[in-house]
Task: structure prediction
Amino acid sequence: MQLEVEGRLKKLKSYKSNFVLLAITALLSLVTLILFVTESDSFINITGYIKAGYMAFLVGLYVYILYRWKYTPLRMIKPILVLCLLQIATVKWGESSIGLNPYSAIGASFNFDAFSITVNLLAIVMVGLTWRCKLFAKH
Result:
């Protein structure tokens, strides 16, 4: 029964689109990590190492999620939904930022005097696609 549902889920356009968007997000995170590491003054203090480690963790997480999404999609619907919901907004002020993926986001940025808010449009689209997969898996 579960294999039959997974087979039908993998044929959905929402599943395929979500897989492609996850791959794009992983690729963008990898490019951001490479650009950060190759910048000459990135590792002046400890925060550079922390940022690089955080970026590497996110790249690894995306690769793991892509692998699991391809082979066991029913188990990954909820984790992908939670991950995408946490990526929707990032708040930055000065050098500090609060958000799951503050270093690479495709979206809109709203700048105010002391802080800025970045809305990740790619994450919003991925929430919608994952939600459609979740509804399909229920039926």
The chain has a mean pLDDT of 87. Helices lie at 2-10, 13-38, 46-71, 73-87, 121-138. Residues 37 and 52 are 7 Å apart (CA to CA).
